[in-house]
Amino acid sequence: MADEQHFGNPGQGxxxxxxxxxxxxxxxxPKQDADPDREKKKSLxxxxxxxxxxxxxxxxxxxRAAMExxxxxxxxxxxxxxxxxxxxxxxxxxxxxxxxxxYLGEISDQPHVLxxxxxxxxxxxxxxxxxxxxxxxxxxxxxxxxxxxxxxxxGAFPPLGGSDWVVGVPERPVxxxxxxxxxxxxxxxxxYNAVMPGFGRLLSDEEVASVVTFIRNSFGNETPEVxxxxxxxxxxxxxxxxxxxxxxxxxxxxxx
Length: 256
Description:
Layout: H1 2-8, H2 10-28, H3 38-46, H4 59-71, H5 83-103, H6 130-146, H7 164-167, H8 171-179, E1 180-181, E2 184-187, E3 190-193, E4 196-197, H9 205-216, H10 228-237, H11 247-255
Antiparallel strand pairs: 1-4, 2-3
Helix pairs in contact: 6-9, 9-10
């Protein structure tokens, strides 16, 4: 029966023989590795070169190392300029300081003060020029109404040249300048009616004396000067008055 099975299935025996031979061949002739560096990689892997090491440095040390590395990299814009540029800057600054010191005058802690000749030791000793000061006051306050030539404005402001109110007693023009005037007046057949404000709060005794002196010696007039002391007395005598004078009130005050 065994022979029948063997001869009855001859292919099965040959397959077993080939398998046995293949197994024997594998043991005696090992298959060559496809990767020729396999053994080298294996040896390197077993060594410490490819092994992972834990970094024992602290966060501060790592940060410092990173910062030191960045500081070594030069930043754009910090390059040193050429020598001639520094020479021009120094020369410009030197010329600027020289120019300011030569032409801008002295340096002082008092702003807007021009240092010229020293002021006189005592300003009170300077004699007041009543006509010159009176011209300035008249130009500033009176000229717009009474005009530059003192002719006035018909129907509003009377002329100053030859007026009895101007060349008469000085009390009348002084009080008009101090408290003002209102109401109708008739001069040489012409009626004038306008309000003149008082300037007592704006002008000092010297300024009132100077402008009254100016109109009493201008426009064809010629009378003695009015002194600031006289104005001070007249101001004191009418210190309680706040309204403008009328013609009747002014006549009554002068005539009493």
